[in-house]
Amino acid sequence: MPEIALRPCTLADHEAINSLWHGCGLHPSRSDTLDGLARKLERDPELFLLAVADDEVIGTVLGSYDGRRGWINRLAVRQDWRGKGLADRLMAEVERRLVALGCDKVNLLIEPENAGVQTYYERLGYGTDPLIFMEKWLG
């Protein structure tokens, strides 16, 4: 089995991460453009982690921190790499990095069509909070 490295995402990874997300059933949003990635990487690049084996992106986790709360988005592992602890490794590392920044609470959202992952996050200690989620695209 090839060695797996965790490293921060770069602009050069844009196509690979979007391909991975598509293959995992995650649908890129309007903010997942190259410009959107550049803005993300200006803010906290150390929280957008990739798992790489043989120079191929096989996993992602997109963390962010606004100084008050941390967020987890886009945890994805390529199908043929699932069941090997890679998602756990990505989550542990992004959580470690959030703690190092002073973050004491992290949130995540699960889209309804991906509800099956709820038990995975519960195993990691995440719990549900009955909130009403609202959003608005600006522009």
- Taking all residues together, what is the mean pLDDT? 94
Total domain count: 1
Could you give the order of strands across the largest sheet? 1-2-3-4-5
Instruction: Provide a count of the helices.
Output: 4
SS content category: alpha+beta
Q: How large a portion of the residues is in β-strands, by DSSP E?
A: 15-25%
Largest sheet: 5 strands, mixed
Q: Which CATH first-tier class would you pick?
A: Alpha Beta
Number of strands: 5
CATH architecture: 3-Layer(aba) Sandwich
What does the oligomeric state look like here? single chain
Q: What order do the SSEs take from the amino end to the carboxyl end, as H and E?
A: EHHEEEHEH
Choose one word for the global shape: globular
Any idea of the CATH topology? Answer: Aminopeptidase
What's the name of the CATH homologous superfamily? Gcn5-related N-acetyltransferase (GNAT)
Low-pLDDT segments, ≥5 res: none
Whole-angstrom Rg: 15 Å
| Beginning-to-end CA distance, first to last residue | 46 Å
Summarize the amount of helix as a percent range.
25-40%
